[in-house]
Specification:
Number of domains: 1
Largest sheet: none
Radius of gyration: 16 Å
Strand content: under 5%
Helix content: 10-25%
Structural class: mainly alpha
Mean pLDDT: 88
Length: 47
Amino acid sequence: MNGEVPHTSSVYLAFVALGTDGGPTPVPALIAETDEEKKICRGSKQI
């Protein structure tokens, strides 16, 4: 072992907004602004 900590996994979570009736409700779209946010969004679309 050389003391380096490798990246071993990533996880993406999906959340559903619920309306007052308890069912799914629309929410505004996420706007990725930084390069890191854009990279994460691209990766999540591959799933």
